[in-house]
Amino acid sequence: MQLIRDFFNLLNDALLKMTWLDALVKWFFGDIIGISEESLAYSSLTFFVYDVIKIFILLGVLIFISSYIQSYFSPEKTRRLLKGKSGIGANTLGALLGTVTPFCSCSSIPIFIGFTKAGLPVGVTFSFLISSPLVDLASILLLASIFNWKIALAYVIVGLVIAIIGGSIISFFKMDDQVADFIKEERKKQSNQDLNEYVMTKKERIQYAFEQVKEIFNRVWIYILIGVGIGAFIHGFIPQEFVLTVLGDNNPFSVLIATLVGVPMYADIFGTLPIAEALILKGVGIGTVLAFMMAVTALSLPSLIMIKKVIKPRLFFLFTGIVITGIIMMGYVFNLISYLFT
Amino acid sequence: MEIKVLGSGCSNCKRLYEYAKQAVDELSIEANVIYVTDMVEIAKANLLRTPGLMVDAKVVSYGRVPSVDEIKELIKQA
Q: Which of A3, A99, A185, A245 is the most buried (most CB within 10 A)?
């Protein structure tokens, strides 16, 4: 048993945590360039270089794998699978499909309109739309890499629970009339012939996965650099006492602050991870850090402005209220049970 | 002929619009290339993924950015 465990730890350290890279970067700056290990610049620089290389390697590999799997799913297929279903089972299915359906934030509005037009309950559509950006295949592996498997699993479960309960609450309050009028008119017409869906060959799936890597890379590299830059700055230059006064467990508002700062920010999980990593290293509670990450990925100012155009104010406030409250509650609970994750 | 690119203004939509204009140029045909961001129209086209490409009110591709050559084929077939 011990042998097997050691073997998996070795794989985990080498492939996911990339301990060799950390050592290599530290050796390069410490022994080759000759920066004193005591200096602030040293910890910032090594953090920045190590994190940028690690995240870009992981990004490439993980996006490739998850895009290949996702090429078997599409919003059209998801809509077919969800059609005619309701109740908590449908919310659960919606949230689960959200994790594997390829999703780009600029498609969230067409998806919302298309699902609603097809007669899907608004609550089920929201279960899908909440889980889609929050939980995806690549983010699970990335969390396992930077933190550990327990935290990755907990993140996934909490993300799904927020999506399922959020959608169910929206169903419970009967929000189906709270959508923009033009969608209601379209719904009456029932002109929902499915467009012919293109079925890819295996070669095209591989090509698709490559293109996704390239495209996501082009879209997010700047956010990753900014994210790692902020992370490196926190790591090297912001005093620990200051971080802990604002975000530490002794401040009862820590989770609240982390969530409200995260909500308007627009970035995906790859950009938030380096900041999360730096905060963890400073001793910030796991619940506070997860709350920040979830707030950044689940909601953003651009996406809120877009969604506001297709739903009415009551549903808009219910939706944002549920997501924010869910994240804050999750944060405090995780801080309380943080001893389970070390 | 009327060619429409439907999208919410993301980078892929803009790229498809440029490609479509280029395809029309290279085919040297008479065609209007229009960039549509109106949600109502996107909803009417029954698109779930943007960007969408329409040739004479028929959706010929969606959710991806075809190459200029492929767009030329799509226009010819329509």
A: A99
